[in-house]
Structures are given as C-alpha cells and as structure tokens.
Amino acid sequence: MSRSRPVFQLQTLLGPAGRSLGLARVSSTAAPGSMDRGNVISYKDMKVLVDSGNARIIDVRLPGEAANGRIANSVNIPVAEVEEALKMDPETFKMKYGVDKPRMTDENLIFHCHMGRRGAQATEIAITLGYAKARNYAGGYKEWSEKEVK
Prior knowledge:
The protein is an alpha/beta fold. The chain is 45% helix and 11% strand. It has a 5-stranded parallel sheet with strand order 1-5-4-2-3. Strand 2, helix 4 (63-66) and strand 3 (74-76) form a beta-alpha-beta unit. Helix 5 runs parallel beside helix 7. The longest helix is centred in the C-terminal third of the chain and has 12 residues, at 117-128. The protein is globular and about 35 Å long.
C-alpha cells in the first residue's frame, strides 16, 4: 500500500478540517469534492468573458503581485481573505473592495492567482460556502500576461 493512501483516508474522514490542516497538499490523490474540470476555465473561455465584461473576476494574489499587472475588471482579494470576504454582508464587502459582492447564483465567478494553485484554493472555499458555479482560471496571470502581450 502506498504512503498516500492513509493520508487520503484521513482527508476523507476529516473533510474540510483536514484540508485546513494542510493534509490536502500531502497526497497527490484528489480528495472527494475536489476541483474537477467543470470548475476550471480555459484561457480561451476566460478571454471571451473578460472581453464581454460578463465575469466576476477575483485576483487572489498578494497586493504587491497584483500591482505588477492584472486582468481587466478584476478585484484583488488575497486568498487568505477570501473566506472572510465571501461571508461579509454586501454593504461591508462593497465598502472594503469597491465592488458589489458576488451572488451565490453568479454564473461567471472566476478566481485566479499567478499559476493556478491559490486560485484553486479560493475556488474550493467559494464552492464550500455555496458559490456552486465558482471556477478557477488555472493558467493564472502568468498565462494571461504571456498570451495578452500585443
């Protein structure tokens, strides 16, 4: 039996508590309820949404990272603040971040970071809080900036 199997079983038993302890990063085996392809958006689809203005884009990088470039119309909420932010009442959210709080029913709530890992983490948090259609732009700002160079 591989070493990751007991960790996977512990993740399954502990659920979100196990992930908060960092156990989700120990095993390469996906935990139940983890991101699947339906929760990931490609560059091509992201480009269409950005160009149309029909996306709620949350950049979960640190403010210093976001200051070096960003995807149009994104709002910066570092991954460490995502859960607290999504639990805020709409008025507090708007005062803090300058935009309307995403609705649980938003079709195009997209999280991104630099290369996808923190974006996936933020997407999982959002889904756990009831934002069932939240997605991660796995290519992140790295892919975006490489493909958007004109």
